[in-house]
Fold each of these.
Amino acid sequence: MPHDNRRPLTLRDVSEASGVSEMTVSRVLRNRGDVSDATRERVLAAARELGYVPNKIAGALASNQVNLVAVIIPSLSNMVFPEVMTGINEVLEDTELQPVVGVTDYLPEKEERVLYEMLSWRPSGVIIAGLEHSDAAKAMLESSGIPVVEIMDTDGKPIDAMVGISHRRAGAEMARAILKQGYQRIGFMGTKMPLDHRARKRFEGFTEVLAKNGIEIEDRDFYSGGSALAKGREMTQRMLERSPELDFLYYSNDMIGAGGLLYLLDNGIDVPGQVGLAAFNGVELLQGLSTQLATMDACRREIGQMAARIIAGRQAREETEDHVTLMPKITYGDTLRRR
Amino acid sequence: MPHDNRRPLTLRDVSEASGVSEMTVSRVLRNRGDVSDATRERVLAAARELGYVPNKIAGALASNQVNLVAVIIPSLSNMVFPEVMTGINEVLEDTELQPVVGVTDYLPEKEERVLYEMLSWRPSGVIIAGLEHSDAAKAMLESSGIPVVEIMDTDGKPIDAMVGISHRRAGAEMARAILKQGYQRIGFMGTKMPLDHRARKRFEGFTEVLAKNGIEIEDRDFYSGGSALAKGREMTQRMLERSPELDFLYYSNDMIGAGGLLYLLDNGIDVPGQVGLAAFNGVELLQGLSTQLATMDACRREIGQMAARIIAGRQAREETEDHVTLMPKITYGDTLRRR
DNA sequence: CTGCGCTACGTTACCGCGAACATCGGGGTC
DNA sequence: GACCCCGATGTTCGCGGTAACGTAGCGCAG
């Protein structure tokens, strides 16, 4: 019977109930060391009977081992990080490790707080989005002695390991593809970027290539907050009213891009004849639209998987490649006219 | 200088560096008890200098207090739970408590595993989606002695506290609204439901009201996996080809509903004249569509907030209302014709 | 000067578990 | 039969903190 005294259950209770030492109970519950089948059964029965749940806090302290992996990401609300999480989960599923998520809202000071909090639980590894962190955060990570994988972005120097894509290159490639199709008068829409370094780098890569070809972005607009789809609509409408000469719109993410696309379709504007569109991310969600937006896959799930694999590998003292740059491919869809 | 010996830092290192006892360091770092400003400064300086991060494992063991709240949800990938998380975060932000997320993929056995894992860290509270759990899971929760808030659904008896809406009622209300508008030949599309109890309850509430009015669902279809938007498209197309007499389609969630809506619009079908549509959830994302889908808000953020408030309240030994049923409202949008 | 109370700090005893080592008993080897 | 070995189990100790309590030093009233 799940006893109900105020005193919490411990190994000792199970050991007394089953007539063996605490150590043996510990061994049974962790499947470690030699225990005869007979006693194993007795112990398991007693534990089940009592409703005993081991205390990992004590266990972690004694063994100096914590099966937690801290995952620190900016947001859960924009589809991209949940997909990274999925990748991480898939890999950690097969190990003893468990992910623990912390959210920073793109705020460096919050990242610092969350990181401090996480590190104080002495996790077996840290997976953290981005290469840009406050000095204090970097110092913590460096001196923690814990494996650290920085994900999403590889335009920079990691503290330890990194897995991601080059956003600069992603922006550049998209620019090349657009130019190759003959578009020349280009507008840009995206989030307010001071804190979204990856969006910024894409933008930089994008404009650099344009510049090399003697082209400048003719109009731009930035948003923050709200439903991205709706913002994409509004911004696109405003931009085209303001700059009707544009023949291409580049969006910093798929959701606002989709908003723009829907606006254009609703208003009978010829896509990609009159105006071409491209965005970034490759969110699966949009596959339900009748017109497929040109975009570029961010390899989110693979990134999660590889990062988790690196942590798991370190755990097992295996050598793993620890600077991985994935190569995203452009999906032309229906909004980036081919020659 | 952040020392780099292999030996990890402890309170002792900080105490030696600052010339006070470990206890005083502990007090400083936790802002507890009397410490003079002078020594506080010295200690903080030393801690910063060394890059010391407290070990919560040891702290938790000694104090029998863990500032973690376990949040157990079925999925991160469908917008609804991230929004619940947002609500939880907003409230816990102002407390010492920290959410830790576990994902069950709608699998009871995985829920059990995740719960066991979580409870073994002795969190200060558990927020868990749904009222349906395995017997073992219920037993664990009951005997844990930890505050438990079951969220999303209130059609049933909670273990401890609960916050949510009545999905049965939500389905029923939508059925009434649809009938009131004169629709009569109704099709239903949703996920395969054996494990999504809330979708099931909505469906039950829905069909019950129809039955009372002598109406039966004329066609139905279920999907699993894949992009919901795309599935909504495909299923809608198939269903209308199969059952062209239908004048209303009820979807178990907004994403497939939106897929259906887009299909109808693309094919020039008059919405809501020829076919009306309604779904469930009120996902903000869809506000960018040119035609607004009729839906019903699931009060996700409030649910998160209230659940977190209950846990925080228990922590502070306050009395809080602990059986809360929120009342979702129908948004008619443009797809549910008014009289 | 004594004694009281207060503040600022130190001491001690755990918290629940696991690593490392000790022990015990029985079967095989020669 | 002496010896060894090995699988199964127990003992000891300490992980890094914190609660609870103890105490030194000071100011101040009488």
Amino acid sequence: MLNLFHARHLLSRRGLHTLPARSLSTPDVYECNVRISALVRAGKAVAARQLFDEMPERDVVSWNTMIAAYWRASDCVESKRLFGLMPRRNVVSWNSMISGCIENGDIEEAFRYFQEMPERSIASWNAMISGLVKFDRVDEAERLFKVMPRRNVISYTALIDGLARNGDMRRARCLFDSLPMKNAVTWAVMISGYVENEMFDEARSLFSQMPEKNVVAITAIITGYCKEGKIENARKLFEGIKEKDPVSWNAMISGYANNEHGAEALRLYMQMLRSSMQPDHSTLLVVLTACSVLASLQCGKQIHATAVKMGLESDISLCNSFMTMYSKCGSISDSDLMFRNIQNPRLVSWNTIIAAFAQHGLYEKACAMLHDLVANGDRPDGITFLSILSACGHAGMVNESIFWFNVMVLEYQIPPRTEHFSCLVDIVSRAGQLEKACEVISAMPFQADGAVWSALLGACQVYLNVELAELAANKLVELNSQNSGAYVMLSNTYAASGKWRDVTKVRSLMKEQGVRKQPGYSWLEMGDKVHMFLRGDTSHPDIKRIHSQLDTVYLHMKTRHTINF
DNA sequence: CGAGAGCCAT
């Protein structure tokens, strides 16, 4: 059992030989406080409260611990009620009100406590600064930083983080370089700031100078490699981590899932479970991405079951991921069902279900959802309209796509981004209106990107417009000389127009430039088997029946009949 | 008992 002697012993082992006698509890109270604190850390707020209520006398630490328990449980009302009932408060009591409010999304309320408190510690200022940074109010954070009476390494680190989030890496670095007492957290903030701003070389250069590399910094670098598509480098770093934690596992799994390596992502997830690492909320999110990439309904359902077991089935971000997974795995009805079970859909959930209907070509349903979203009092954003546009595309509705584009820009005053333009160009040019597609491109307020030219080039191939195909292919190669799709589509356009000499020219140019085209492949899951199809590959045992079925489908598509299998 | 970092849904 812990008593005062033990407490002193523990503290002295941590190098704190002199104890502030005033803050030390009597042995009984101290012991209860320790037990309450343990219960709170284990998430057992009810048991903690019972112990708290049974205590014959309580000190300020007992109250603070109990209040923290309610903040952890997001029970703002009870936290504030207890705070009001406290007989005495210390600076820690006030500080936990500040961080509690911030944790629960109410920065204004946090600021009220900050202003009201009789005396502030460095931690009070730091809590306020990091809170403002969390809410993207970096300018205000900086103002507080400037007027605070004393600063420590945490204050600096919080502001460096803020500047980095604002994209101001130059000033972040200045502050970092001027700081003599950097610690591992400071280094990690700076490195992940570079990664966040896609300055990967700077991130790695700083990382190489970091004296003691910890798992947080390594994970940031892994994320950087994954964003660049250098998945092998990421894997090497990951394997080298001695003490892998859930976050580093999640980063690596997500790297595979987001680089089209769904199977490897799932393998890694299984390995994580085998090494008895507990998956968390984020693990499930990234594994669901892998299921979507693989279109594996089986795996997706298993993850769904795991989420239910973990008590996370109504977690909003997981629900959104389930919706995407079910939709991408072909089950729009499950996706729809998930959406209906969300009590309070926020914009992301609306956007997700609209995207799902769009993927399935259900234009009317997508629009009905947009209508419901507005009727619900929400405001659509650029992503909502991107999904609506994509619904138009899947349904081949050119005029509607232009209509919705205008609604977005004129009625909702949402500035169109390059994705909106590439979607529009894709729709218009697929319909054969190549000139109109060019008009859209020239009306863009910024440089067209690869997706725009790709869309145009794809249509040129279909509608045999050699001249425009050459233009688009040139633009694509300008943007990325290793773009094999550009060469292939241009070559196909020449071939379809009988310009064989030009075909040969493009092919030899590809060889010269060392551009290679990975063969296309697709697969689908039936029962417990995965059927894979490589381009030009006829090794599937049922290939004859598959081809004849495909011929039927093509015929129906051409005659615009509905298909009944 | 309180303040700073990495992974995370459209």
Amino acid sequence: MANQKETKKEAILKAAKTLFWQHGLRRVSIVEICSSANVSKMTFYKYFANKEVLAEYLITEMLTNWHNDYRSVMNSDLDFTAKINQVIALEQQASQNMSEEFLGDIYNNEFVDLQQLITNYRDSYHAEIVKDMIEAQKSGQVRADIKPEFILYLLEDISKKVMDEKLSKLYPSKQAVILELTNYFFYGIINPANESHV
Amino acid sequence: MANQKETKKEAILKAAKTLFWQHGLRRVSIVEICSSANVSKMTFYKYFANKEVLAEYLITEMLTNWHNDYRSVMNSDLDFTAKINQVIALEQQASQNMSEEFLGDIYNNEFVDLQQLITNYRDSYHAEIVKDMIEAQKSGQVRADIKPEFILYLLEDISKKVMDEKLSKLYPSKQAVILELTNYFFYGIINPANESHV
DNA sequence: GTTTAATTTGACGTTATTCGTACATTTATT
DNA sequence: AATAAATGTACGAATAACGTCAAATTAAAC
């Protein structure tokens, strides 16, 4: 019954995402989204109050998707190193999903509400990661004398470094960069005592 | 003396090119170009009457660059197959230089003068290519019974096919696609009598 | 150090674009 | 045939972009 409504709404979301990801928020107009989604302007306003609300929807969707992926990784039966590998891969594709153009637009222009939204999600997710790291320390998978927040910092740092062009030039592929970085990461934090047990 | 003028002008051109290539003509404003080039609006109008004239400058630059490259290839001492290989490579990087966003914007919106400019250059270059192909026929490097305009058509067709995603999926890399296409191209047009002479 | 030229700044009126809403019409659904 | 959903057009209001100007600042040249 509400099936075609979903179709229209999804068409708007899909078109908006493509345009926002490519050009950011400021450069894309509502009518542009509508004509790209083959939808009239009124239908747009039936589902979204304005452009910012639509962006809010997309951001929320994206961030909760990330969170679900993260949780399913952390709840899996993989060993800790495999989990972290997966998480790094997630961070990787998440930062690719969130295009520079989109984020830059949000932060360079006066979309304060969206900034706040992202910040809130980030904070909550980061707290969760830290909690997971503390748990990993308790079970002996991570050095006990390392500050959990520092691990979080390292994870973010790795994401940045993967994008670093100077670093990329030292390796044949981005895969190689990631491998090097994760190796470096593990030999720094993995509990040697725990490893020898395996 | 006119050295710093060049610097300012070039800064504008560089910034504009980056922005145009990413977002097209319509989405980019003059003040945006200026602030990206660290130049005031007045300086912009000192060098360019408006946005369209600036785009005209960039397009002309790009197309004449292509032409110079093409001529230096065709005037070289390479044999015919090597020349065509180079030309295909040129077409390749030219279509990458001219971003979809930029060209699409010119043709979807009312930038009629720019459309005309591009068309004129294309026509003139195409005539030149056809002339070169007729020359290649006379010197026995290309089958005499093939229509020169058809060779031009094939060259453009190869450029399109390289971009074709369906085709790309059949090969491990874009290089492999190009190799396959050029091989196909040569075995179709190369004069077997001439080859056996070598 | 003064003069001269180049560049920037801020403001301006004008034009174009975008926004959000309203209503009559058309297109689907049931 | 009746009901609901979606469209197209038009609208005033708000915003953004355009192109121009004179005055102020900075840099270069003498």
